[in-house]
Structure to design on (275 residues):
């Protein structure tokens, strides 16, 4: 491991994985919550960087760039947040990301933007960015300064968000516009949830067979839990608690990773990996 963390105040939680070539330089503090993962080739440079538990940040992400050493250069990230490959966050002003939010690959979040001469009337924009809880900001989207995204929001891929968005909406486009209002979250019946989960399990069984796994595997869904049995060994995935307990091997991790890709997050503090 070749990580480097420099700050006046450093607190690293329990069971945190920090991979190779990770550099974190903050003037004031670095707090990383329990069971967090920072994979590799990650650069963080701001005044303070605080995360909740179960942060999952993957290869090549960067937090910093212009103006990232000022008094407002603060990044606050909630619990169960995913930030994926190649994302750039520029915190010349404060950036806040709420619980259970996903930031897709190669997203850019900017809190300042100026190049041309403002005395000739060209624009300059500086301001904080707030992203709420339960937000999906997918690949190659761009968030501009002075934007607040509400809770329970889904945004279309490759969108440019230059205005604030309300709770519960679906929005997309360049520039981003609200397409549907008050659509999230939806209340599903237990039967509807069971149908979704059983369908995902059936698809995974076909995939694991395609991968050449020949051992005997039984998977069942009951009371909002998935039960994976391999001979005399059992693994339990609790969908509501987002936890995994029991026997862990390559097959159990493959199912956890497949559930993630199908929209069911199970957190352990370890890397997501498939066979």
């Amino acid at each position: 491991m070749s990580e480097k963390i420099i700050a006046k105040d450093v607190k690293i939680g329990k069971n945190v994985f920090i991979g190779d070539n990770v550099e974190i330089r903050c003037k004031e503090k670095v707090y990383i919550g329990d069971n967090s993962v920072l994979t590799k080739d990650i650069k963080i440079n701001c005044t303070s960087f605080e995360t909740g538990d179960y942060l999952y940040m993957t290869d090549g992400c960067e937090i910093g760039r212009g103006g990232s050493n000022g008094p407002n250069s603060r990044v606050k990230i909630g619990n169960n947040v995913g930030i994926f490959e190649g994302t750039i966050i520029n915190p010349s002003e404060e950036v806040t990301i709420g619980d259970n939010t996903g930031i897709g690959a190669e997203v850019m979040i900017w809190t300042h933007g100026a190049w041309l001469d403002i005395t000739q009337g060209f624009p300059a924009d500086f301001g904080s960015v707030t992203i709420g809880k339960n937000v999906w900001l997918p690949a190659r989207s761009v968030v501009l300064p002075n934007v607040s995204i509400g809770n329970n929001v889904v945004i279309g891929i490759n969108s440019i968000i230059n205005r604030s968005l309300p709770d519960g909406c679906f929005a997309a486009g360049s520039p981003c516009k609200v397409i549907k209002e008050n659509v999230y979250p939806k209340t599903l019946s237990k039967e509807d949830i069971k149908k979704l989960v059983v369908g995902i399990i059936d698809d995974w069984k076909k995939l694991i067979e395609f991968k050449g796994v020949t051992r005997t595997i039984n998977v069942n869904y009951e009371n909002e839990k998935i039960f994976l049995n391999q001979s005399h060994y059992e693994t339990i995935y609790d969908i509501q608690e987002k936890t995994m307990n029991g026997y862990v091997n390559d097959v159990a991790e493959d199912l956890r990773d497949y559930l993630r890709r199908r929209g069911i997050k199970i957190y352990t503090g370890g890397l997501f990996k498939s066979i």
